[in-house]
Amino acid sequence: MVANSEFTVSNRGEKIPGKYYTFRANPKRLSIYKEMGVDLVTLANNHVYDFGNDAFYDMLDSFNEYGIPYIGAGKNIDEAKKPYYFILNGYKIAFINATRAEKIILTPEATKDEGGVFRCYDPSALVNLIKETKKESDFVITLIHWGKEDSHYLEDVQKETAKLYIDAGTDVIIGTHAHVLQGIEFYNNKPIVYNLGDSIFNN
Prior knowledge:
alpha/beta, six-stranded mixed β-sheet, globular
């Protein structure tokens, strides 16, 4: 069970100026993820930095404390883009996560020395990660935070880069961010689920 976790987790921090929607959870609430059986969370999205740097690092520490693995964000770029692996029925399945969701970018990108998310506005970094991951995996599942919110229509960049990622070796693409369904396409017999909509959200 993989959850796109669209909030920061902390009792500290102030809302980032310029953000209309901000989400924050008490660290104790991560027990709900444990009760639900969440095996992995994706953090490459536009809400993990809603309350600033201290809250972002608190979030990472809290997930580690509760033993909930995460992908797509980290204390540096190596951690943010690091795949997470499951061995299922003898197959090694890799999960990777990136974001290109913000039109006005307020969430920092992870660097060699600073924390943040793994971005794919320039698709080359994600293409390279998929190629590297595929070498040591039977299947690669790529989860991308992208698209226009509350719209069923795809942006051209979604359709164009999805094919790049399939060509690079990913076996499945699953999109989040739009809050509504955006359809499924098969390219080279590989599914591109452009946006799954919401499972649990505030509205």
